[in-house]
Amino acid sequence: MKNKALDLSRHEAREYHTNYSGIFFKAKKVLLDKKSKFQRIEIIENQFFGKVLFLDGLVQTTEKDEFFYHEMLVHPALACHPHPARVLIIGGGDGGALREALKHPVEKVWLVEIDQEVIRACEQHFPWLEEALADSRAELAIADGFDFIQQTRDRFDVIIVDSSDPVGPSAVLHARNFYQKLKKVLKPDGIIVAQAGSQLLHLEEHGQKYRFLKKMFEHTLFYFGPVPTYPMGTWCYNFLSDVIDPREVKKLRIPEGLKYYNQEIHAAAFSRPQFFLEKLK
Ligand code: SAM
């Protein structure tokens, strides 16, 4: 059975991270509670975090802390790439990654989201999505990301995988053959970034993924950032490229007005803690 976050008898929504721990939000209002063809979509209003979106019971985004995640997912790659003209985002139906990508001198950004209902819900509740989609450089495709990259004839400078966790419709977006196909639609000097899960909770998976990714890309790196409402607080991202090493780029092109990402954060984000390094051996 698909997970549900809302418990109306307690007026709250909760996500279990382990059998013994998790996070809860008091629901001042329930704004949406529906099942799409792909997943359960719930949105509540919380007095501290503002609107909170859950898919299959897992927090995807909150108005208060989404900037940590979306800035760290998008800017390290786009700030490093010398000419990020064509950008592909897979997943990302809440629109935060699209909004951030459009802050760069891009020519076109494709947003490939599998679930039309997520787009509908987020257009209604998160105003940045509607604004970003109104940008003439943005193009929305309602499609499975895996099918899209098998069919597209386009080639991309930067690909951003803004998937949910590796369960349900997102499971295909974490597998080895997905990355093999992604590489075929990436320009030779391009960059792929992917949200890679919780630093601590998904530690075993990081080791497994690293072992197949490092055979495919010259630079296979993890970087990290905080996301207060995601499991265990510290989030991982993969940076993959055959040409660009983000630790060596001297001049980052950073848009004005960001809240979290800057030159200092970029330099620090690629440092790996000892317990993590042990897993990559
Ligand atoms: N980073 C957020 C997190 O982990 O909490 C997730 C952001 S975003 C809301 C994830 C999106 O990926 C969802 O809207 C989901 O519908 C979409 N998605 C899942 N599987 C997909 C697939 N195979 N192709 C395209 N989009 C997919």
Description:
The chain has 281 residues and is α/β, with parallel strands linked by helices. It folds into 2 domains: 8-62, Spermidine synthase, tetramerisation domain (Spermidine Synthase, Chain: A, domain 2); 66-280, Rossmann fold. Helix content is 28%, strand content 32%. The protein contains 9 helices and 14 strands. The chain has helices at 66-80, 96-101, 116-125, 127-133, 145-151, 176-184, 203-213, 263-269, 274-280, and strands at residues 6-7, 12-16, 22-26, 29-35, 40-46, 50-55, 58-62, 86-91, 108-113, 138-142, 156-162, 186-198, 219-226, 234-241. Strands 10-9-8-11-12-14-13 form a 7-stranded mixed beta sheet. Strands 4-5-6-7 form a 4-stranded antiparallel beta sheet, covered by helices on one side. Helix 2 (96-101) links the parallel strand 8 (86-91) and strand 9 (108-113). The chain is globular and about 55 Å long. Bound molecules: S-adenosylmethionine.
The CATH architecture designation of the largest domain is 3-Layer(aba) Sandwich
Order of strands across the biggest sheet?
10-9-8-11-12-14-13
Give the % helix: 25-40%
| Integer-rounded radius of gyration | 18 Å
Cα end-to-end separation = 36 Å
Beta percentage is: 25-35%
CATH class of the largest domain: Alpha Beta
Bound molecules: S-adenosylmethionine
Number of helices: 9
**CATH superfamily of the largest domain, called what?**
Vaccinia Virus protein VP39
CATH topology of the largest domain: Rossmann fold
Task: Tell me the overall shape.
Answer: globular
Structural class: alpha/beta
Features:
281 residues; Spermidine Synthase, Chain: A, domain 2; 7-stranded mixed sheet; 9 helices; binds S-adenosylmethionine
